[in-house]
Amino acid sequence: MTFALGLLFLASSVLADDPPAASKASEEIQRLQGTWKFEALRTGDEEVKPEALGKRSLFFGADSFLVFDAGRIVQAGTLQVDPSKTPRTLNLVVKQGDHQGETLLGIYSFEGDLLKACVDLDGQSRPSEFKARAGSKTMFFSVRHPAWSADETIAIVGKYKSETEGAEGEKIDYDVAIERRGDAYLVTYTKLGQLVYIGTGLRTGNVLSMAWATQGQAGVSAYKIEKGPRLVGRYATLGGPGMTAIETMTPEKVRE
Hints:
It is a single chain. The chain is mainly β. It has two domains: 2-144, Lipocalin, CATH 2.40.128; 158-255, Quinohemoprotein amine dehydrogenase alpha subunit, domain 2 (Lipocalin). The chain contains four helices and 17 strands.
């Protein structure tokens, strides 16, 4: 489990001004984040029965993946994607479990909230179709992302300007990046390119709750998510007197 948790920090880069190809790959990784439920899994002549599929799930956190079976991690590693290819390609670098130490070459596609993938288990070639033919060393699987609740339709991933008021009434602003990190969110605050605060957020409907830390200080924040998207909330420091301050995050594209 320590290894699995450590995987989540392998690629902690925030949304940056990447070259176009890297930017598209980063966007695709964002699309994969979270927990997916298996709907089909076939390897050569063997197909996993529906009752067994119900116990399996696939988790993506940053560029790491974890495969669970009945709550137990059975495979873990890192993921590389290239959405510019047709079909889109993926490489699974396995660090733990079946095929440990190997890089499995595959292809993938999205159909709404359904993800389909086909992987060569020999690691010698990349499949050209989404099938696991009988007698082959190819694995096909499809997983579905649980539907978002009706009040979580406003996407919040992106870059923002944060504005708050200091203890003496002065205005303080930061550059903020929000990105998906598994089933949660990674929130980073920078000033003149330097990291100032880092936080982990959980979303429930139109509310984002976040625990954050910096050198010598930690605290909590809670925001209401408004159209724009615009986040308006309050924060307090850990161990402080309980005073709160207002913070507003406005998307950069709105301010420009």
